[in-house]
Write a structure and sequence with these properties.
Structural class: alpha/beta
Order of helices and strands: EHHEHHEHHEHE
Oligomer: single chain
Strand order of the largest sheet: 3-2-1-4-5
Number of strands: 5
Strand content: 5-15%
Largest sheet: 5 strands, parallel
Length: 136
């Protein structure tokens, strides 16, 4: 199938992040043969990295071996619905840090793939306990 690449890894690579860039690129390289995909939410989150230039972003993703677009399915919506409910319930009892909705969408999307490549392992593990997570 394929691995879903989280936005943070792509930003690390695009910006040659001094702390995470090399490790994120190595992880991407190690999983490239398995196939790499992004969630539609990641496509949106990357806009500031390329100054809103969709053509430049598509070229960046192509050069990294990341396929786009992968279709959003009804099952993704249903998984995101369940995950958002779990997250909000945990927040109401003060047991969860604030998470952006995009992470819920990305995690739900990744749930039907091989897993997710991210350096924000804890963020996904708490909301998606059965998701396969690989970190640099």
């Amino acid at each position: 199938m394929a691995w879903v690449v989280d936005t943070c890894l792509l930003i690390d690579i695009a910006e040659a992040d001094p702390a995470f860039g090399v490790a994120s690129a190595k992880l991407r390289d190690n999983k490239r043969a398995d196939g790499l995909a992004i969630c539609p939410a990641t496509d949106i989150e990357l806009a500031p990295v390329v100054n809103g230039d969709q053509t430049a972003q598509n070229e960046f993703l192509f050069n990294l071996g990341v396929t786009w677009p992968e279709a959003w399915h009804q099952a993704d919506t249903e998984e995101a619905h369940r995950a958002w409910h779990r997250y909000v319930a945990a927040r109401r009892t003060a047991n969860a840090p604030k998470r952006p909705l995009a992470d819920i969408l990305i995690g739900a999307f990744a749930s039907r793939f091989d897993g997710i490549l991210t350096r924000n392992e804890t963020d996904f593990k708490t909301v998606f306990p059965s998701l396969t997570i690989t970190a640099p």
